[in-house]
C-alpha cells in the first residue's frame, strides 16, 4: 500500500514537472497572452497570418563562428538579428561592421552573458544602457528607449 502511494506521488510529480518544462520550452500562445496582460510594456510576439521566421544569433561576436554564420546566411539569402555582448566588442568591431554591412541587425545582449532574470531592475537597466552605449558606435544601431 505504501509503495503504491509512493509510485502515485512520484508519477504525479513527474507529470507535473514535464508539464511545467513543456510550457517553458514550447511557450504556448495562451500563456504569452496572460504574460502580456501582466507586463503590457514588454513585446513578446506579434499576431500575423504570414508564414515567417525570425533568425536570431545569440552571444556574439565570436571570431570563429560569426564569420561562418555570416557566410551561411549569405549563401541562403537570409537576414538575421545578432544579439551582441558588449564586452566582446573589443577587437571584434570589424565583425560587427560586417554583420551590419551585410544587412543584418544587431541587438543588445547586455554587457556580458549572464542570466538577467536574476538582476534587479536597476542592475538590468544599468547593464542594458552600458551595452547600449557601446553598441551606439555602430551607426545603424538605433538606441533603445528604456522607460
Automatic annotation (TrEMBL):
Gene3D superfamilies: Glycoside hydrolase/deacetylase. The chain crosses the membrane at residues 6-26. Residues 51-147 form the NodB homology domain. GO terms for molecular function: hydrolase activity, acting on carbon-nitrogen (but not peptide) bonds. SUPFAM superfamilies: Glycoside hydrolase/deacetylase (SSF88713). One of its GO terms (biological process) is carbohydrate metabolic process. The keyword Membrane applies. This is Polysaccharide deacetylase. It comes from the Bacteria. InterPro entries: Glyco_hydro/deAcase_b/a-brl (IPR011330), NODB_dom (IPR002509), Polysacc_deacetylase_ArnD (IPR050248). Keywords: Membrane, Transmembrane, Transmembrane helix.
